[in-house]
Amino acid sequence: MQSQATAYMRGYFTPKGLDHSYKFWYPQLEIEGKAQARGWHNILSEDGEIITEYNDDIQANMTNSDTISTVRFLNYIRVTFAKVRDPITNERAYKFVGLFEFIGVDENNVRTYKKISDTFDVSQHKTAD
User: Three-state DSSP class for 129?
Assistant: First the structure.
């Protein structure tokens, strides 16, 4: 059985040569209140400033103590591309929605991320590796 931390890591990654404090994240936004990926609800606020996420399966969701012990998996700046549905064509595609940082988890294990920027210049964050 894979660990929760391992499963969590698969939701985002750092491209080779990019500063490791940044992760590219591709959440699938919930549609009509329904999770779109393995029970994960990712909700972008109407103003685009906050993303909240939780899982339908409480067993798959980390407890507060698990979250605290795995903060290294949450505490990155996320270069976020949300999977959205075009209301006219009904096609789905990923759209850059901004840079988000983890701000906390509540008593119901709902994680919250706040937008810190509308832009990301990859050339400013390259590393030598």
Answer: coil
